[in-house]
Task: inverse folding
């Protein structure tokens, strides 16, 4: 064993249900440890993506090192790993936890234990982490720390008598939280002299330095100039640089045992580094790799097409680059009669889909059309084959289908008892089957049920929020495949079937959805020179219709002297608007039409 | 240089107008009204009759005009237009004086139009306009139904409008009436009445526009977020079609999307705007269109105007000074401008678009010139597409808008403007 001292290192994550205040607590920790001075403080400092700051959500984990001068007179090295709270990104949380010895479990003092509080706590317990419960937002008048304390004990079986009461907003209690971390979280164990064993927990691509990996060293140490071997990728690279984020990148002479930091690989191929892989010395390899991660499985699939088909290659490159730090992203080429060449991309959920689409458009300057999300159907043909169908257009003709099975989730909703009826009603409407119901405390009930994933990705979550006045929280995991009576709903514009608008739906819901979709499309598609009939069809049978009336007249403005410039500007605006539309046959269709199915039922 | 002799080569003849170094048309703007109408978003302000500011403003206009004439900008000017606002509210002597100055500055004038509102078009004003050399009046009648006039916030009633128009016709001037459709309270019957009663007054020219609810106007505030049924696109289309039927049956020919005239009574000044001829605009908010050569001549009066980059063929320039600044300016250099610079291809696309406002469509010279400048294949493809979409058709060797092309003008103009690859550069001085 080496004499390398890890007793002053604390590696921990902050986990919580979405909006319970993880990022604000992280911000306060950075401030209190003088990692970032108050004047330089931007809120949500660890959320580096524009999308994260704008939406106030954390999507990517981010590791930062802070030095904490504790009350015992010693200085501790804290490696803080911020994690996402949305259910779509559960896999990110489990990745982060694998690099930690402890987890701060944040619970909102007004909301109490919610669905992802439960799932995150379970993840942390299963990873054998030391848990530091913290009750946040105690500055709010509606805060009920005592109620929440008992909920943590009853619902999670975590001793909470010492739970720290904090306010990320005012900074109250943050010092106590840091002291608790020193006392409750174990220091890392490891052998500094053993062959290197380090986990790649994240990576990103930098145009100048190549792939930069965030790693946790379990055994050994990493120094610049060493040749390292990636065990799963079966390839090596020379370390250009190592260091830590404070939160700006700070180079160091080495990353020691138990530490978390970054490694500049110099590798120029974004696909060459796999998150979850184990790093070791090329010359002196560790016999056993680390367990790595359970691969995150995409659950929702959608077509992404560049509006301008010339951008196809750029879209592929952009997806490759995003995959470097988002290994859950998968895609296969897809061709649509209406939209040309694109990709069928797999996502962890709808939020993940929105975020990726937005990043592609912003960071890579692409104009994209996304089509209605679909799930992965198992289609059993009369010939006895099983087909994985992720796109409605790949569905075989009805006469060739023996049966279709669809993915079901086991979902849980935590809600105050007065909304129980509303939730059960909603579950039934979405073809759900109730499984269990448990009182977590006097004022919170957990309802578990099985529900088709396809139902959940449409409007379940929005409905749940509105019918429970925002009190319900939802968590889910994949359960199994079950047979369902499903049909393909086609949409015809001006008599032509538009493959990109097709949708797989349960037979009992087809009529309602077809009617809703025709009406929604009528709102979205602007009036054209000719009348545009919109029809919903199953097979050859038309089951709904609506009509976009022809535009009879556009604006006739005077066009004397100065009006000519004005007219031209108006035409240029008109042109910009058209650029964002896709011509399908003779019909100009706006981008959002292809996601209209998600808006059916909205006012 | 200027027109006058018929060139054998139509393209060379068209191209010659793109290098005229003087204005073919002159516009002067008088931004004063007794009352601003509910729908109006023009550059005009409410002023009481006899306001000294108006007198000072006219004096400033006359000074700038004299300077432009001295610089040679007016020597081939054939038409002039006094617009507003309400020019007739200046009163007989002030307005007559201004018209006389225009005559003096532009020796070759063949048409001189003055805008008028019935409430301020007194017999005295009429007489002074005739004496000073005006040839044409454009009267803002809008409707001959009292309730409709009231809803628009007009100052006159139907009886006064009819009486003033008749008086103008008797004065011997060419008279045009501006009418408005798709207005509150209008019905097919009331519109029919307005159209026929206007023609019966003896006018030789009628302009017809659907009311547009412009942002920032009193009308827009009154309407709010609603799309009023009286202004629906279908109603606008039906009224425009009705106007065409009624006016054409009475011998009026539609020569532009919104303009109808008896033989020989079409407005030459407005046609200059739509046929690539350079014009000079003077006054608050007034716009000019100059060739590179004409712009260089204006620069001799206004040293702060920048030298044009290579490749610029046409300049559009708007005077952005307020009426107070205009009054106090000692010369063109004291005024502010918005300038747009168009290259040859942008100018050609603009001319194609404007040509499509006219019944006569795109003339042969312009078509050939556009093909040379924008690419023969691209131009022909777009025109073929416009025909395929039913927006344009070939008539007597010229491409002209169809009925649909007129109703859906923005589609058609948009296709033509899209021939241009880059947007127009602008600057403010």
Result:
């Amino acid at each position: 064993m080496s004499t390398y001292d890890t007793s002053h290192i604390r590696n921990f994550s902050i986990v919580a249900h979405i909006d319970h205040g993880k990022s604000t607590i992280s911000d306060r920790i950075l401030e209190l440890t003088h990692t970032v001075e108050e004047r330089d403080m931007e809120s949500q400092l660890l959320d580096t993506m524009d999308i994260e700051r704008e939406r106030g959500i954390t999507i990517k984990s981010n590791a930062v090192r802070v030095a904490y001068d504790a009350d015992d007179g010693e200085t501790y090295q804290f490696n803080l790993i911020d994690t996402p709270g949305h259910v779509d990104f559960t896999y990110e949380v489990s990745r982060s936890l694998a690099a930690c010895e402890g987890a701060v479990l944040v619970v909102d003092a007004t909301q109490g234990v919610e669905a992802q509080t439960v799932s995150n706590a379970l993840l942390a317990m299963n990873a054998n982490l030391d848990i530091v419960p913290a009750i946040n937002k105690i500055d709010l008048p509606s805060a009920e720390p005592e109620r929440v304390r008992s909920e943590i004990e009853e619902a999670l079986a975590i001793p909470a008598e010492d739970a720290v009461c904090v306010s990320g907003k005012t900074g109250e209690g943050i010092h106590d939280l840091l002291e608790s971390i020193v006392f409750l979280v174990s220091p890392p164990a490891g052998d500094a002299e053993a062959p290197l064993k380090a986990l790649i927990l994240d990576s990103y691509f930098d145009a100048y330095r190549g792939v930069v990996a965030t790693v946790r060293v379990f055994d050994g140490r990493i120094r610049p100039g060493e040749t390292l071997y990636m065990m799963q990728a079966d390839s090596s690279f020379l370390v250009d640089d190592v260091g830590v984020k404070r939160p700006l990148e700070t180079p160091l002479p080495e990353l020691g045992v138990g530490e978390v930091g970054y490694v500049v690989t110099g590798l120029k191929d974004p696909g060459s580094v796999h998150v979850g892989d184990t790093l070791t010395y090329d010359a002196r390899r560790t016999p056993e790799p680390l367990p790595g991660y359970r691969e995150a499985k995409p659950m929702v699939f959608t077509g992404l097409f560049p509006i301008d088909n010339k951008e196809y290659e750029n879209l592929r490159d952009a997806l490759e680059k995003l995959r470097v730090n988002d290994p859950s992203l998968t895609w296969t080429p897809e061709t649509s009669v209406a939209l040309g060449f694109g990709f069928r991309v797999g996502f962890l959920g709808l939020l993940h889909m929105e975020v990726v689409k937005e990043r592609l458009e912003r960071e890579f300057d692409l104009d994209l059309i996304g089509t209605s999300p679909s799930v992965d159907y198992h289609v059993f043909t009369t010939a006895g084959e099983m087909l994985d169908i992720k796109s409605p257009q790949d569905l075989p003709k009805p006469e060739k289908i023996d049966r279709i099975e669809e993915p079901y989730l086991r979902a849980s909703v935590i809600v105050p008892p007065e909304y129980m009826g509303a939730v059960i009603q909603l579950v039934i409407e979405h073809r759900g089957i109730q499984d269990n119901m448990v009182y977590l405390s006097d004022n919170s009930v957990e309802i578990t049920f099985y529900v088709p994933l396809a139902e959940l990705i449409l409007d379940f979550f929005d409905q749940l929020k509105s019918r429970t006045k925002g009190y319900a929280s939802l968590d889910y995991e994949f359960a199994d495949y079950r047979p369902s009576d499903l049909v393909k709903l086609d949409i015809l514009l001006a008599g032509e079937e538009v493959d990109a608008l097709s949708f797989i739906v349960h037979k009992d819901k087809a009529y309602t959805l077809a009617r809703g979709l025709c009406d929604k499309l009528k709102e979205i598609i602007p009036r054209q020179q000719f009348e545009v009939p919109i029809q919903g069809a199953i097979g050859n049978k038309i089951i709904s219709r609506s009509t976009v009336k022809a535009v009879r007249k556009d604006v006739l403005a005077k066009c004397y002297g100065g009006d000519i410039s004005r007219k031209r500007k108006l035409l240029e605006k008109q042109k910009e608007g058209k650029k964002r539309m896709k011509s399908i046959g003779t019909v100009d269709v706006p981008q959002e039409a292809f996601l209209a199915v998600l808006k059916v039922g909205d006012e | 240089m200027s027109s006058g002799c018929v060139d054998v080569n139509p393209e060379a003849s068209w191209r010659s107008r793109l290098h005229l170094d003087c204005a073919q048309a002159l516009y002067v703007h008088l931004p004063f009204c007794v009352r601003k109408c509910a729908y109006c978003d023009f550059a005009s302000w409410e002023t009481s009759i006899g306001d000294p500011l108006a007198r000072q403003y006219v004096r400033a206009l006359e000074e700038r005009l004299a300077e432009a004439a001295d610089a040679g900008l007016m020597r081939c000017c054939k038409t002039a237009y006094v617009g507003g606002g309400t020019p007739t509210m200046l009163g007989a002597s002030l307005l007559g004086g201004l018209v006389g100055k225009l005559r003096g500055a532009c020796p070759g004038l063949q048409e001189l139009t003055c805008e008028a509102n019935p409430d301020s078009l007194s017999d005295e004003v009429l007489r002074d306009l005739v004496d000073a050399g005006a040839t044409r009046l454009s009267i803002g009648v809008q409707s001959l139904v009292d309730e409709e006039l009231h809803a628009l916030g007009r100052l006159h009633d139907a009886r006064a409008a009819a009486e003033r128009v008749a008086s103008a016709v008797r004065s011997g001037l060419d008279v045009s009436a501006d009418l408005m459709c798709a207005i509150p309270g209008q019905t097919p019957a009331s519109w029919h009445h307005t159209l026929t009663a206007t023609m019966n007054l003896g006018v030789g020219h009628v302009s017809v526009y659907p009311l547009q609810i412009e942002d920032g106007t009193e009308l827009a505030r009154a309407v709010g977020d609603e799309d009023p049924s009286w202004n629906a696109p279908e109603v606008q289309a039906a009224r425009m079609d009705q106007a065409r039927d009624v006016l054409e049956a009475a011998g009026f020919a539609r020569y532009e999307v919104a303009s109808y005239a008896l033989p020989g009574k079409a407005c030459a000044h407005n046609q200059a705007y739509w046929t690539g001829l350079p014009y000079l605009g003077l006054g608050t908010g007034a716009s000019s269109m100059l060739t590179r050569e004409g712009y260089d001549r204006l620069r001799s009066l206004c040293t702060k105007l920048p030298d044009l980059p290579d490749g610029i063929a046409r300049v559009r320039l708007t005077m952005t000074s307020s009426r107070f600044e205009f009054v106090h300016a000692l010369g063109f250099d004291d005024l502010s401008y918005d300038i747009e610079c168009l290259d040859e291809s942008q100018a050609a696309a603009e001319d194609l678009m404007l040509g499509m406002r006219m019944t006569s469509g795109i003339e042969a010279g312009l078509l050939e010139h556009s093909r040379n400048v924008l690419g023969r294949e691209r131009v022909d493809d777009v025109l073929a597409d416009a025909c395929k979409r039913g927006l344009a058709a070939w008539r007597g060797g010229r491409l002209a808008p169809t009925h649909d092309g007129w109703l859906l003008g923005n589609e058609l103009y948009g296709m033509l403007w899209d021939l241009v690859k880059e947007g127009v550069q602008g600057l403010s001085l």
